[in-house]
Give the backbone structure.
Amino acid sequence: MTDAVALDPVFRSAQAEFERALVRNVKGLEYFGSPAPVLGASPKDVLVERGTMRLYHYHARQDDLYRVPILLVMATTNRGYIFDMVPGQSLVEYLLVQGFDVFMLDWEAPRADERTLSLESYVLDFLPHAVARVAQETGEPDVNVVGYCFGGVLSLLWAALEGKDRLANLVTFTTPVDFGKMEMFQAWSDRRFFDVDRLVQVFGNCPGDYLYTAFDMLRPGTRAVTAPRLYQQLDDEAYVRSFRMFDRWSADILPLAGEYFRQTTRQLMWDNCLMNGCMEVGGRAVDLGAVTAPFLHVAAQHDHIVPTEASAPLLSMVGSADKEEVVLKGGHVSLVAGGNAVKRLWPKLAHWLGERST
Amino acid sequence: MSSTPPDPAAFFRTMLGEWEKIANGVGGQVLKSADFARTMQGASGAALNAQEAMKGVMERALAAANMPSRTELEDLSARLARIEAAMFRLEGKIDALGAASGLATSDATGSADAPAGTAGARPTRNRKPPAADPA
């Protein structure tokens, strides 16, 4: 090779690209040959296994804890390990290290016979059951509730109806209240075309595949570029590691109990009852103004599932005197578990709760 | 004049990003239209009809083969769920009795990991927030 050729910038560029391609191919082989990362592995006890309901208690990492425990409430469509991906990228681990006593209300896929579970089952049975069990475990009368996405909606409903004596502080992440602003879901659940009764009658529970397709269609171009983008960055270990975690989680969609799906479609998607004042659970009218505990809502600036407009009215609807809304950079998932979460959300959450948990 | 050569990989990444934005924008507009919703739900309705017809056929075939149908298995599962609920109520009562008599209540229902704190060395709950604000 002559010096002139070696110094040619085009040649150097081609050489670098060739080397990257080689690395990508080697890493690609490793990718297909290596096991998936173990997610949700923080040591924990399973306090309740009851049909679709799971209640976990994570092992404390400090000898002296904040008095008030935290109950994380997961959305019913997804797995709770988004809060506990891997060491170093786990909200649960972060809160434990900060000195909190952490519990999680998580969900398994509802069984076929659980198709009759309703909004009442979640708000007036599962959540109170979890709160009572946390109190029994800790000996503390009150609890901090932190709800994610629809877990936030369930937490709000519970807080408004049953939270008066039990709720110390309420935190919701990306929690919609104005379902009219969720344009894509509104279009697809249009009552003129969508026969929710027939779907529940035939399937019993709303299949996870339906929900996965709906979430996937919110960004119709993204799926197509996923594979080429991954191939392009196969030499980037951090990217590949993160891709494997999030891709697995986002594909791990749970079915929804049939009656619960029917009720949420009718009351929230069709009648937008939280905004229109017609929300009822178990025949009891829900007024979010009855939530008076300190309240924090965190929204994501680039949330494609729950746009910020869908959660914007929330702060004015709750009756708390001590309330705050924060809009952070990131999307629906990266807000709670991505790199930005580590830098922004987690310290904010720990600080806000720490001041109110003694 | 700059001597930096063009980076084809960077160009490809930029192209992918731009294409994704356009596809999400244009595709999103199409997908949230009433026409699309009507078509999608029409297709879903047809799939539901096919599913229901298949269910009837399968139930008859399983009955002919003297095998339980999905409905019968669901009934069995529901019965197990009722037994599970009864056990849960009993567990709660035992815990309550234990608490009333000053005994330790039942712990986890299942965990392979040894808990950090044992019944004899539970963490205290006197922690105070650090004085300084987070960065």
Observations:
- The CA atoms of residues 311 and 336 of chain A lie 16 Å apart.
- Chain A has a mean pLDDT of 90.
- The longest strand of chain A covers residues 44-50.
